[in-house]
User: Fold this.
Amino acid sequence: MNISLSIEECNIFACETVEDFDRIQTIMTNAPNYKEVNNRGHNSFSAGLNCYGRYLMNKSIGKIPAADRLGKKPAQAQREASKPSVNISSEERTAIEMVLETRYANGFRLDLIELGRLRKFVREITDGDVALLDDELIELVKMCGTLFQGKVYTVSKEAQIKIKEVISDYFNSGARVIFYEEFYTKNENWLFDESLVSVDMLVGLLRRMFPKLEFTETFFGYTRASIPTAVTAELRRVWGRDVILSYSQMSERLPYVPIGRIKSALAYNPDYIWNSVEVFARRSNIDVSTIERNNVRDVARRECELHRYVSVMDLPLANFTERNHELSQTAIHNAAFSVYLADDYEKRGKIIMRKGESVDALTIMREYCRT
Assistant:
């Protein structure tokens, strides 16, 4: 690098603490030809220094376990430890990680040309050749990032910390699942800039960062339940005491659950009643009355004995409507039938009859005309 300092003064890899590094970095940046060297490398030298400083800081606070730095799960790292180690120093390994992060933001292509360039960049930092065969160097590069379409992409430690904070905060709020596609879509503007160029790459990183969580084909979190079961549980969690919610409100409360999954869960779950366009009511939050239930059932029983059916319009629902004023007329009828009559009766449009009874519109019209 030709910086006017002795080898001892320049050896940042001998630093074991952030304080040691800060001292040497100050000496380097105050060197007479520091700006010249840094400008000649298009600021890559200063970027490398900052990267190594962040590495020491994260290492000192325990945010980068050895297994994570190599892109492995703890179990994988333990298996690798039993294999013969390659002849490479920690200084060289750190330099390789630094070069991948600072010079290959758009991915490292696994070919001999890029391997040669990588060796050159590392040599500029360490003043020595990388003591690895090409195949060994390729395997090490793969462990430093995620392989995608022939390139290895590395994600900065800062990005990993941010991802971990966002996901931890979401789960700490009570959430149980995060859908990969939705998380990537909601954060794509900065994930892409951090070399996470696809959902598959994100999933690979998440598996390494959260080895204790459950991972399925579409989501990860604290359960391996089916998608309908997982989404329904999330809906119950965020619905609270509200009677009605719109799709947009539910989507705001479940930002990492696809709106299509929410719609499907609402459509096929009897605890949710259609209220109006894109608005549903939760049956268990509707205000019901035992006395009112008995009155409704008495009317339904009496009318069905006389005519084999009863119109929902003839049920005594004035008080029910007043108490549940948030509901539409359609929701009032469906909710009243669901909570008061559904166990013994069937509903076809506005007509209610006992289960097993067969009454069609023509029969009803003839009886009406006769009377």
Observations:
- The chain has five domains: 7-60, 66-153, 157-221, 227-285, 290-370.
- Residues 1-5, 61-85 have pLDDT under 50 and may be disordered.
- The domain at 227-285 is CATH 1.10.10 (Arc Repressor Mutant, subunit A).
